[in-house]
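thoughts on both lines:
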Amino acid sequence: MFRVNRYEMVAEKIQGYNSDVINKSFNNADNVAQFLIYNLDIGKYLQERFLVFLLDSKNAVSGLFEISRGSLNYSPVHPRDVFCPAVHMCAAGIIVAHNHPSGDPTPSREDIEVTNRLIEAGRILSIPLIDHVIVGDRCWTSLKSEGYII
């Protein structure tokens, strides 16, 4: 039997957060990055955290989940963990994001590899990966803008 409670909706962990993101439309990476930087202050975390935004057919957020929490320079991510809440909640698409505690949002080789695996898994499940945003210290990079996601 499927167990969603493996994933904690980030909204339940952050006071006053739910109204700031649920049903908000993220139509570009700048919206996502601004939310992560100014609402969650994700660039200040000392551990990598990997999040998934679940989107409805109008790109409005229907859920936000923390998928993993890692170390200073690594957070384990597997497509099944990313897409599990997306499948359960019937998401039309996803945006993933994580932070780089170093403050430099330049994508690593591992970031690009994870993105490619998520693109392929999304194709199979018909839940496209819209973007992968990496947040540093008040700065960010969009892998879609960088040409890694077409």
Strands lie at 49-55, 61-69, 93-99, 129-135, 140-142. The chain has one domain: 4-142. The chain is about 30% helix and 20% strand.
